[in-house]
Amino acid sequence: MVDQMVGQGDSGPALSYPIPSEAALEPPAEWERLRRQCPVARVRLPSGDEASLVTRYEDVKKVLADPRFGRRLDADGAARLSDTESGGLFNSDMASSLPESGEAHLKWRRMVGKWFTAKRMSALRPGIEAMAERLIDDMVANGHPADLTANLGFPLPVWVICDMLGVPESDRDEFSFWSDTLLNLTRYSEAEIGAAQAEFAAYMTAHITAKRARPGDDLLSELIVATDSAGERMPDAALIATGMGLLVAGHETTSNMIGKMAAMLLSDRRRWERLLADPSLVRTAVEEALRFDANGGFGLPRYITKDVEIGGTVVANGTTVICNMAAANRDESAFDGAGGMVLDRSPNPHLAFGSGAHSCLGQALARTELQAVLDVLLRRLPTLELAVDATDLRRREGLVVGGLDEVPVRW
Q1: Burial of 203 (0-12, 13-18, 19+ CB in 10 A)
Q2: Does residue 8 register a pLDDT over 50?
Q3: Buried b vs exposed e over 241-266: b needs ≥16 C-beta within 10 Å?
Q4: Bridge-based pairing state of the strands 146-147 and 408-410
Q5: Which domains does the chain have, with CATH numbers?
Q6: What pTM did the predictor assign?
């Protein structure tokens, strides 16, 4: 039987969201209660606006695949995610330059997705491993303890994504700053976020002009000249938004995941030792780290323009729905022993990259980077260990994607 409208079954005050956790690598205790008792919960966002939070695996998967749940968060009545006037990255004009759904969205995905083939990812891997080796050389030369995120996790993905966009090495620090600013919900002011968006748009406009005059062997050059099935080329606004999407999705998420993955594996030495004994488990270990990550960040917001039923609850027209994939990935109804890290778990249909038509385009690249980094770390630093107790690790607050302030290690 379908319940009454969302919120009436949960009479208490809206939960503050994101929900805090007592330990950086542990899920909030509230997740289990929500999945069991209140799978569609009222939450209050950093902006002060309210939304509905979905935490069960099947519900999250269905919402992400349902075209009735749109990505346009600038609609009248849609909840603002951050405490800035614009509501942050998801509400920006730049984000709305990309087609939201339908055939236009599929055309965009096909044009961009041609770059992320298994063959191209395999071709990128030697360069990724070589860069990881260089960064580890520098970290070792400077001695320990060292912050693995600052020395490896942060610089590697921005190097990869800038290489894909044909951005010169001298400009990578700017890209790192823009990525951090655009993905933070609380650290920066409205003026700072607006300035970062304007600076990024101006840079990409000039970069696209330069690539038209002198194309290179990079994704942006390819997209500039590519045409869809109707012979049409991607407009500049969509090219800029694509560059922004690749930057914020391809840099910050993977950057933080490298540190979190290492911390998860090193927090229980038996996990690291098992990988040392059997490096063939690297692929499944990466997938399990993605599933097991309890610090997945904000989740994916969606907006509905009609009443929709989710898991037995009717969610009203005009509601912003937050899909928490990290909570869904800890759902015991979907994963046996969901609260434990099983390095050889297979199959592992986690939702870390989303699901359906809007699943992460760059997931093959993220997997390639994470597998390459883990392979190199196991080979180069077999004695790697956390330099602090896992309970002393701290979450990076305010970021749309989850992260740790630092991951101190020694070897």
Answers
A1: middle
A2: no
A3: bbbbbbbbbbbbbbbbbbbbbbbbbb
A4: antiparallel
A5: 15-410 (1.10.630.10)
A6: 0.88
